[in-house]
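Final report, Chapter 2: Outcomes

The project's central promise was a pipeline that accepts a single protein chain and returns its three-dimensional structure in a standardized token representation, suitable for archiving and comparison. That pipeline is now operational. To close this chapter, we reproduce one record exactly as it appears in the project archive, with the input sequence first and the structure output second.
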Amino acid sequence: MAFTLLIILGLATLWLLLQAVSQSRGAPGAAAFWRGDGRPRRISHRGCAARYPENTLHAFTASLADGAEAIELDVHLSADGVPVVIHDPTLERTTNGTGSVREQTVAALAALRAAPPNSGVEEGVPTLEAVFEKFPKTPLLVEVKTVESVPDVIALIDRFDRRDRTLIGSFSGTALKLARKLDARVPTCASRGEVGLFYVLACLRLDHLLRPAYNAFSLPPRSGILSLTAAPLRRAARVRGLPLLYWTINDTPTARRLADLGADGIMSDDPDVLASV
């Protein structure tokens, strides 16, 4: 039994090494802003959704006024193929509309109310282009929700020439690979699989074999039983110049603990939490 386990472990290690050396290298220095300068970057999650109507121009403006240095937002495609800023694939939770975002034209989405009636905010679902126009210098972490939205998002980033101020994230590894294929100059976050591989190799002190295709990590502090603030991960990320951006941190003690551990960025729904670091 012990011999069998040893063989399995050896084969698994070999597979990890092959995966590591087969990755293409990400754009060097592309995520420079996201590396902390002695304290974490303050990133408003959906525009500090605990205080403001999430993913609206009003929320983004207000969160920046509260001290955020960057904005995290979410993108889906409209029926006519326009990247729009909304988290859910459906409209019910955050607007007065119903049905699928993908089934609505950009004009129909703009005509909705994307904020609670008592908020005083009269605004529809914004386009990503409108965000780029209104916040030309603000660093943005754009989470693409679907693979099909990637080409249009990359095209907008290229048209606005904001590769140095835009970081692509996604829960879809396919979406991230497509973004890199379309324009390797646009920085991307690691996929969940890439995080896992980096974590294992860091623990084995074999991370030097990696040639990451990504430029940053966007992580929760924990994933199941794994601590994603563990020393091997932090050490290896620091050596490779890969920023560690943690979400979604809505209590001050956790935010301060992450800051003490050297987090490069903290995403929060609460501007008071961001102000504490």
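Archive annotation: The CA atoms of residues 163 and 186 lie 5 Å apart.
This record, like all others produced under the grant, will remain available to the consortium after the project formally closes.
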